[in-house]
Specification:
Layout lengths: L4 H11 L4 H8 L7 E5 L7 H6 L3 E6 L2 H12 L6 E4 L11 E6 L10 H14 E11 L3 H4 L5 E11 L2 E12 L4 E12 L2 E13 L3 H10 L2 E11 L2 E10 L1
Parallel strand pairs: 1-2, 1-4, 2-3, 4-5
Antiparallel strand pairs: 5-11, 6-7, 7-8, 8-9, 10-11
């Protein structure tokens, strides 16, 4: 899956930059001398605030639109981030990192689960001894409580005067396989008429707390800790694990 132009605009308008309390959380885990990797960094929602705090963070993403936006937003602060356009599962990265951070549920985009497990193996090769893996996960509790396995959703954000972007979609919940299939349409409206349209398909896996703890231990991580946080009005489980 690759985020397009309208998705990037919607994402930037909807999620903004990471707030100070989220940035402070990472400051408790890493020193400014550490080298950090953010897979699927997008348009820099977290990466740019960490750079502004003096951290060295490399970003990788397969969306040219997201990375273009990241560079532009970073440049507004006089920053030139190290960004790599590639699928993380296919990229060759020569550096070893003190930390790998995957905020806001991006790890759940690795589908099928075999790919997610492959990525945990790859993260091990990218981390220094005792390096930390930090990732946010969430469970779609609201969908699990519904009688139907299929639901529609609609959201919109204003991007300028008389301009907004809408997203309309259908989610199919596979409760026993623990993933959702989403088909979305982004439309950009200017003065009440559609000027651009973009389609998107996305599968999102979810993991329960003790399930993920066991998975991380199976793939060679230790000292697994959990913190519960609210990010952009969403309840997140944040796992912090060290490489054995």
């Amino acid at each position: 899956m690759m985020y397009g132009t309208l998705c990037t605009e919607f994402y930037n308008a909807d999620k903004k930059m990471a707030p100070p309390d989220e940035v402070d959380f990472y400051k408790t885990l890493f020193k400014t001398a550490d080298l950090i990797l953010e897979p699927m960094c997008g348009s820099g929602r977290l990466l740019i605030p960490l750079l502004r705090e003096g951290y060295t963070v490399h970003g990788i993403d397969n969306s040219s639109d997201m990375l273009k936006s990241c560079r532009e937003r970073a440049a507004a602060f006089g920053l030139e981030p190290t960004l790599i356009e590639a699928r993380i599962e296919e990229a060759f990265l020569p550096d070893k990192y003190d930390g790998i951070i995957i905020p806001f549920g991006s790890f759940q985009l690795f589908y099928p689960r075999s790919l997610a497990f492959q990525m945990l193996e790859q993260f091990k090769t990218l981390l220094k001894p005792n390096g930390k893996l930090v990732m946010d996960l969430s469970v779609p509790w609201h969908s699990l409580g519904e009688n139907t396995e299929e639901s529609t959703f609609h959201r919109e954000v204003k991007t300028a005067e008389n301009t907004l972007i809408r997203i309309d979609g259908i989610n199919k919940v596979h409760k026993y396989e623990q993933y959702t299939q989403g088909v979305s349409t982004y439309t950009k409206w200017v003065d009440g008429r559609v000027v651009v349209r973009e389609e998107e398909q996305m599968n999102i896996c979810w993991y329960y707390r003790y399930e993920m703890e066991l998975i991380l231990e199976k793939y060679g991580f230790k000292n697994v800790q959990l913190a519960e946080r609210y990010l952009n009005h969403r309840n997140q489980m944040t796992f912090v694990a060290e490489l054995k």
